[in-house]
Amino acid sequence: MQITGGNKKLNMATPVSVLRLPKGPDPNSRGFDPKSPRFIALCRTSIPTSAVSEADVEQLPKEQHARSVLRESFLRCLLSVTNKKVQFHMYERVKVEATFGASDIDVMNFQVSDLHTPIGVQKEALIRCQDVISFSFDA
Amino acid sequence: MQCGWSLLGPLQWIRYINKQVKVKTGKDEEHRGWLLTVDPVSASLVLVNFHDDAVGGGRASVQVVMGHAVQEVQVLQDADQETTERLQSSFLPPRARPLAPEQLGQRRAGVRRWLEENRVPVQEDGEELLVAGALTIMAPYGPEDCCSSNQIILDRVQRLIQSQPAALPNHGVESPNHRAEAPNHSAALPANQPIQRLIQSQTAPPADQSERSSCD
Lengths: 139, 216
Prior knowledge:
A: 20% helix; 31% strand; B: alpha+beta; five-stranded antiparallel beta sheet
């Protein structure tokens, strides 16, 4: 999202009509090579699971245990963020505030409500995780 | 820009938790905090900073740094016992006080009766309830205590238990009020209604009805 510098900050409470930004190519139609960089960048629906090298066969249970402990902790953290006000720090020095809704399973998109943008307040929005550097909230 | 952080793997990530770390995400951007967890799917770090106010109870501010934006992670110090405990218990659900065995038994019976009223096959298996051979409910028999590998059954049973009306103080006495609360099973209420409707429709003037039925 490009923010032109030098503009006076608008009143944040103005609601904005729904903006539909261009989506990537439809993965089901023909003509798009799943291996092309454009497809991977725009149509990624899931992060590929990490491959296990052959040398770590005995490490596998330990790795799986570590993975599940970490993931459970992360999911509980996400559970506690729901309906809280979060600040998103994104690229190009963009900082927006919103109410956290949900994340998808691969942490590719965040669903938020009341996204305060410089052009107004979006009632519901989907934020692409690739655009986010970090987000913060108060527990 | 993916640095090595995202490729480390769970065994390496877990070694960083409960430590104070400094995360670099840009030229001049740094985030510090106690590392609570790392998401194995996105390699995102969850950093916690405690703000202990003098006004009752410390608050914590949490920052989640996305894995793809991480350039460097540096460990600053290890956490002591107290901070570790505080970190690990920050997001756990509040533990309910344990119930006495008779109360547990009453709750189990109550949940079982509610499920049976809703025509869900349930069996008692010691301390647990076995539902439809695919779901187990453990003490204290709340919606979060259901275990199943079938998502649909899990969702249905959870909703059912959540919508269970609050138990009455005296379970033994079958008061008429209690019967009215369980509409599926009480014999009095639904049986009367169809009969009443039938009587009403018969007393309605037949002329009107025939006219209505004849018009297309």
